[in-house]
Amino acid sequence: MIDYERVISRRAREIKPSGIRRFFDIAGTMEGVISLGVGEPDFRTPYRVRKAGIRSLELANTRYTANRGLESLRREIASYNKRRYKIDYDPASEVLVTVGGSEAIDIVLRAIINPGDEVIIPTPSYVCYEPMTSLAGGAAVSVNTRLEDGFKLTAEQLRAAISERTKALILPYPSNPTGAILDLADIEAIRDVLSGTDIIVIADEIYAELTFGREHISVASIPDMRERTVVVSGFSKAFSMTGWRLGYALGPEPLIREITKIHQYAIMCAPTTSQHAAIEALRSCDGDVLEMVREYDMRRRLMVKGFNDLGLECLEPRGAFYAFPSIKSTGLTSEEFCERLLYSKKVALVPGVAFGESGEGYVRASYCYSLMHIKEALRRIREFLSEL
Amino acid sequence: MNKDLLKLLESSARMSCEDMACALGTSRDEVERELGELERSGVIRGYKAIIDGDAIDGEAVSAIIELKVTPKAGLGFEDVAERIASYPYVESVSLMSGVCDLLVTVRGKSFKEVCTFVAEELAVIDGVTSTATQFIMKKYKEYGVPLFGDADDGRGRISL
Hints:
The complex is a heterodimer. Chain A folds into two domains: 4-45 and 287-386, Aspartate Aminotransferase, domain 1 (Alpha-Beta Complex); 47-285, Aspartate Aminotransferase, domain 2. Chain A is built from 14 helices and twelve strands. Chain A has helices at residues 4-7, 10-14, 21-29, 47-58, 71-85, 100-112, 129-135, 155-161, 184-194, 253-266, 272-284, 286-309, 334-345, 371-386, and strands at 34-35, 95-98, 118-123, 139-144, 166-171, 200-204, 229-234, 247-250, 322-323, 347-348, 350-351, 363-366. A seven-stranded mixed sheet of chain A has the order 2-8-7-6-5-3-4, sandwiched between helices. The longest helix of chain A has 24 residues, at 286-309. The relative contact order of chain A is 0.17. Chain B is α+β, with helices and mostly antiparallel strands. Chain B has two domains: 2-40; 53-138, Alpha-Beta Plaits (2-Layer Sandwich), CATH 3.30.70.920. A four-stranded antiparallel sheet of chain B has the order 2-3-1-4. A two-stranded antiparallel ribbon of chain B has the order 5-6. In chain B, strand 5 and strand 6 (145-146) form a beta hairpin. In chain B, helix 2 packs across helix 3. The A-B interface holds A 18, 24, 27-28, 33, 35, 37-40, 42, 126-127, 176, 294, 297-299, 301-302, 305, 348, 350, 354-355, 370-372, 375 and B 4, 8, 11-12, 14-15, 19, 22-25, 153, 155-160.
């Protein structure tokens, strides 16, 4: 009989399963739950985009595309990013279409990490950076960002985290789960720290379109940052296209060339139908995105005020679609809070600790839900708090 | 703000003024003032729930009736249209381009009730020259809201 324990690689085994798996399992199976727990938009993919996907199937455009992605899509990606974020990439050599932003993060890390190289990861943040770093043979160096800094990585924290082995810095802003975004001065301060080093920045800007109050500033748009930055983005969040699995990486040619090699062997090419649909998204959906942002903004205001009125201090999220209120006043851990809330009021939130130790004391509430849904969830949370 | 407020009301008219103010980033007083203005000026004509009639009363029927009407001098179709609109059975009256002049939707307790209404009330109105009644067999969408499927949108409960 096969001893699977011995079959599984050390690296795979060492990936920590999420500590709150149990909570997820309960939340997933309980009846009558009202959830604020998902990280995906409730909007449908814009009709024109779905139509473009269907049309491509009717025309039997179902073969592999170029490894890098359809040339027409790469051109659209380049012009879209130039138009919206003032970053300029050559579609022929500096754009790679990937299977979601996730694949891009994975293969960028694999393309640059040597055994023992360190990757600095501000937390609380999306959960894939650390395991992807480990799988690539690197060592994740978490930096705990703080509420008082608006959950932004500060220059001092970055300076303190850099060692001789630092290979890369992940900049996951707009942030899942905190909603923090970087201002011009924040990026300039980071640039100054990195100046003169060979540290590569992986800017996960998947939520770029979803900012409130001001346009997103791409890390690569700041002078001197382009040469060290790979921008990771995609279609899931802005165009409500999660299931299409399509993202991209933008970066200097020598980096994209090597990253593409890995993509070529691991993936071949991103899904063809999705690529055809994505062209339509970039060409004609500014209005749809604006409409969605406006709707998120209303929900955001309602949710943030709701939590603050409940006495759960909540920083104003300026991007993405999450609120990250503090539950420290309850004296519960984030997992206890979420589990008890789930059992007693059937509301599903995500414990902050899922996003790193520095997320302890917070919970993540997504506002990818209708206003009435959010209202009802807040009402139940109020009841829950009054019974504590 | 006017446009945003109307949009918000169209999607969820049950929200309190305070919540709408919060969502729109304005004050409750401002929302109440705007609402008052919109109501007074006739932009907002009322607040209704979107009800799937079939779900509560399986016997009730709706019909679409195409009317041909001889317009009256100086009044056009107004006189007849307003007269038809005054019947409680009538849910909507629209002046149309194309083959018919007025399109009327009616809802009654039974097939017979609607037939009687058309034959004895609508068809005999002075100026109405013909009626073509089509009964609605099933509604799939009303006021932009689908009347089929459940509320589950296929997303899970939790994803990171």
